[in-house]
Amino acid sequence: MGSLWRALRLSLAVLLAPPAHGQADSVEVCFNYDCKRHAAAAFSGPDMEGLRELLGAATDAPSERTLLGVAIGRMYAVAAAQTPIWRDRGRNGIDERDVEGAMDCVDHSTNTQAFLRFLAEHRMLRFHAPAEREVRYALLVFGEHWAASVTETATGGRYAVDSWFFDPGVPAVVVALERWRAGFDPDQTAESWR
Fold first, then answer.
1. 17/95 Cα distance (integer angstroms)
2. Highest mean pLDDT among 19-33, 83-97, 139-153, 156-170
3. What secondary structure letter does DSSP report for 87?
4. Are 161 and 139 in contact, with CB atoms under 8 Å apart?
5. Residues 109, 164: contact at Cβ < 8 Å?
Protein backbone atom coordinates (compact mmCIF):
# COMPACT_ATOMS: atom_id res chain seq x y z
CA MET A 1 0.00 0.00 0.00
CA GLY A 2 2.94 2.35 0.72
CA SER A 3 4.24 2.31 -2.88
CA LEU A 4 0.73 2.85 -4.30
CA TRP A 5 0.20 5.80 -1.95
CA ARG A 6 3.57 7.31 -2.98
CA ALA A 7 2.66 6.88 -6.66
CA LEU A 8 -0.69 8.58 -6.12
CA ARG A 9 0.95 11.47 -4.25
CA LEU A 10 3.57 11.84 -6.99
CA SER A 11 0.86 11.83 -9.69
CA LEU A 12 -1.11 14.44 -7.78
CA ALA A 13 1.99 16.58 -7.30
CA VAL A 14 2.72 16.46 -11.05
CA LEU A 15 -0.86 17.41 -11.90
CA LEU A 16 -0.94 20.32 -9.45
CA ALA A 17 2.56 21.64 -10.15
CA PRO A 18 2.86 24.96 -11.98
CA PRO A 19 4.13 24.74 -15.55
CA ALA A 20 7.89 24.45 -15.86
CA HIS A 21 9.73 27.58 -17.01
CA GLY A 22 9.71 27.70 -20.80
CA GLN A 23 6.86 25.22 -21.13
CA ALA A 24 4.47 26.18 -23.88
CA ASP A 25 0.91 27.37 -23.31
CA SER A 26 -1.54 26.69 -26.10
CA VAL A 27 -4.65 28.14 -27.69
CA GLU A 28 -7.05 26.23 -29.88
CA VAL A 29 -7.55 27.90 -33.26
CA CYS A 30 -10.25 27.07 -35.79
CA PHE A 31 -10.33 27.34 -39.57
CA ASN A 32 -11.93 26.06 -42.80
CA TYR A 33 -14.85 28.51 -42.54
CA ASP A 34 -17.33 28.39 -39.68
CA CYS A 35 -14.72 26.69 -37.45
CA LYS A 36 -15.05 23.32 -39.17
CA ARG A 37 -11.51 22.28 -38.14
CA HIS A 38 -9.48 22.93 -34.99
CA ALA A 39 -5.81 22.72 -34.02
CA ALA A 40 -3.72 23.76 -31.03
CA ALA A 41 -1.14 26.52 -31.34
CA ALA A 42 1.57 26.45 -28.66
CA PHE A 43 3.15 29.62 -27.29
CA SER A 44 6.68 29.02 -25.98
CA GLY A 45 8.39 30.85 -23.16
CA PRO A 46 10.06 33.29 -25.60
CA ASP A 47 6.69 33.87 -27.35
CA MET A 48 5.10 34.66 -24.00
CA GLU A 49 7.96 36.94 -22.94
CA GLY A 50 7.71 38.82 -26.25
CA LEU A 51 3.97 39.35 -25.82
CA ARG A 52 4.40 40.40 -22.20
CA GLU A 53 7.14 42.88 -23.14
CA LEU A 54 5.11 44.28 -26.03
CA LEU A 55 1.91 44.82 -24.05
CA GLY A 56 3.86 45.92 -20.97
CA ALA A 57 4.97 48.99 -22.94
CA ALA A 58 1.39 50.33 -22.92
CA THR A 59 1.12 53.52 -20.84
CA ASP A 60 -2.63 54.06 -21.23
CA ALA A 61 -5.71 52.56 -22.88
CA PRO A 62 -5.12 54.04 -26.38
CA SER A 63 -1.53 52.77 -26.48
CA GLU A 64 -2.66 49.35 -25.24
CA ARG A 65 -5.21 49.17 -28.08
CA THR A 66 -2.49 49.89 -30.63
CA LEU A 67 -0.18 47.29 -29.09
CA LEU A 68 -3.05 44.83 -28.76
CA GLY A 69 -3.51 44.87 -32.54
CA VAL A 70 0.20 44.09 -32.94
CA ALA A 71 0.01 41.32 -30.30
CA ILE A 72 -2.92 39.65 -32.08
CA GLY A 73 -0.94 39.77 -35.33
CA ARG A 74 2.03 38.12 -33.58
CA MET A 75 -0.21 35.44 -32.10
CA TYR A 76 -1.58 34.64 -35.56
CA ALA A 77 1.99 34.41 -36.88
CA VAL A 78 2.87 31.89 -34.16
CA ALA A 79 -0.30 29.90 -34.87
CA ALA A 80 0.31 30.03 -38.63
CA ALA A 81 3.74 28.46 -38.16
CA GLN A 82 2.08 25.44 -36.52
CA THR A 83 -1.28 25.04 -38.26
CA PRO A 84 -2.72 25.27 -41.79
CA ILE A 85 -3.90 28.86 -41.22
CA TRP A 86 -0.71 30.04 -42.92
CA ARG A 87 -2.68 29.54 -46.15
CA ASP A 88 -5.31 32.12 -45.16
CA ARG A 89 -5.39 35.47 -46.95
CA GLY A 90 -7.05 38.64 -45.74
CA ARG A 91 -10.79 38.86 -46.30
CA ASN A 92 -12.60 36.02 -48.10
CA GLY A 93 -11.20 35.18 -51.51
CA ILE A 94 -13.59 33.74 -54.08
CA ASP A 95 -11.37 30.69 -54.59
CA GLU A 96 -10.41 30.32 -50.91
CA ARG A 97 -13.37 28.37 -49.48
CA ASP A 98 -11.83 24.96 -50.21
CA VAL A 99 -8.30 25.85 -49.12
CA GLU A 100 -7.22 23.96 -45.99
CA GLY A 101 -6.57 26.58 -43.29
CA ALA A 102 -8.58 29.41 -44.84
CA MET A 103 -10.57 31.48 -42.36
CA ASP A 104 -13.74 33.50 -42.66
CA CYS A 105 -14.82 36.16 -40.15
CA VAL A 106 -16.37 33.51 -37.88
CA ASP A 107 -13.00 31.75 -37.61
CA HIS A 108 -11.10 35.03 -37.17
CA SER A 109 -13.43 36.40 -34.50
CA THR A 110 -13.42 33.09 -32.61
CA ASN A 111 -9.62 32.83 -32.71
CA THR A 112 -9.06 36.48 -31.84
CA GLN A 113 -11.45 36.15 -28.91
CA ALA A 114 -9.49 33.09 -27.73
CA PHE A 115 -6.24 35.08 -28.05
CA LEU A 116 -7.74 37.95 -26.02
CA ARG A 117 -8.85 35.58 -23.26
CA PHE A 118 -5.40 33.99 -23.28
CA LEU A 119 -3.73 37.41 -22.85
CA ALA A 120 -6.14 38.30 -20.05
CA GLU A 121 -5.62 34.95 -18.28
CA HIS A 122 -1.89 35.60 -18.35
CA ARG A 123 -2.43 39.11 -16.93
CA MET A 124 -1.01 40.88 -19.98
CA LEU A 125 -3.90 43.34 -20.35
CA ARG A 126 -3.97 46.28 -17.92
CA PHE A 127 -6.48 48.66 -19.51
CA HIS A 128 -8.93 46.30 -21.26
CA ALA A 129 -10.86 43.09 -20.70
CA PRO A 130 -12.13 40.63 -23.33
CA ALA A 131 -15.82 41.11 -24.18
CA GLU A 132 -18.20 39.15 -26.40
CA ARG A 133 -17.87 38.65 -30.13
CA GLU A 134 -19.86 41.20 -32.11
CA VAL A 135 -21.73 41.03 -35.41
CA ARG A 136 -22.70 43.68 -37.92
CA TYR A 137 -24.95 43.40 -40.96
CA ALA A 138 -24.54 44.97 -44.38
CA LEU A 139 -26.85 44.50 -47.33
CA LEU A 140 -25.36 43.58 -50.71
CA VAL A 141 -21.81 43.32 -49.39
CA PHE A 142 -21.28 40.13 -47.45
CA GLY A 143 -24.29 39.82 -45.15
CA GLU A 144 -22.98 39.53 -41.64
CA HIS A 145 -19.48 40.16 -40.34
CA TRP A 146 -18.09 39.08 -36.95
CA ALA A 147 -15.27 40.49 -34.82
CA ALA A 148 -13.87 39.99 -31.34
CA SER A 149 -14.12 42.86 -28.88
CA VAL A 150 -12.67 44.34 -25.71
CA THR A 151 -13.97 46.71 -23.05
CA GLU A 152 -11.83 49.54 -21.73
CA THR A 153 -11.95 48.90 -17.98
CA ALA A 154 -11.85 52.53 -16.83
CA THR A 155 -14.57 53.89 -19.13
CA GLY A 156 -16.60 50.88 -20.27
CA GLY A 157 -15.89 51.89 -23.89
CA ARG A 158 -16.13 49.01 -26.35
CA TYR A 159 -13.71 48.29 -29.19
CA ALA A 160 -13.82 45.80 -32.06
CA VAL A 161 -10.67 43.73 -32.60
CA ASP A 162 -10.86 42.56 -36.21
CA SER A 163 -8.13 40.41 -37.77
CA TRP A 164 -10.17 39.30 -40.82
CA PHE A 165 -8.99 42.11 -43.11
CA PHE A 166 -5.39 40.89 -43.22
CA ASP A 167 -3.17 37.82 -43.65
CA PRO A 168 -2.06 36.03 -40.46
CA GLY A 169 0.75 37.96 -38.79
CA VAL A 170 -0.44 41.45 -39.75
CA PRO A 171 -1.69 43.58 -36.82
CA ALA A 172 -5.43 43.44 -36.23
CA VAL A 173 -7.69 46.48 -36.51
CA VAL A 174 -8.77 47.85 -33.10
CA VAL A 175 -11.45 50.55 -33.48
CA ALA A 176 -14.39 51.89 -31.50
CA LEU A 177 -17.22 49.38 -31.69
CA GLU A 178 -19.72 51.98 -32.96
CA ARG A 179 -17.35 52.91 -35.79
CA TRP A 180 -16.86 49.25 -36.66
CA ARG A 181 -20.62 48.62 -36.61
CA ALA A 182 -21.07 51.54 -39.02
CA GLY A 183 -19.09 49.55 -41.62
CA PHE A 184 -15.47 50.42 -40.86
CA ASP A 185 -13.07 49.07 -43.49
CA PRO A 186 -9.35 49.95 -43.28
CA ASP A 187 -9.09 50.03 -47.09
CA GLN A 188 -11.83 52.68 -47.32
CA THR A 189 -10.61 54.91 -44.50
CA ALA A 190 -8.51 57.93 -45.43
CA GLU A 191 -7.49 58.87 -41.89
CA SER A 192 -5.35 56.72 -39.64
CA TRP A 193 -7.30 54.18 -37.61
CA ARG A 194 -4.47 53.20 -35.29
1. 47
2. 156-170
3. G
4. no
5. yes
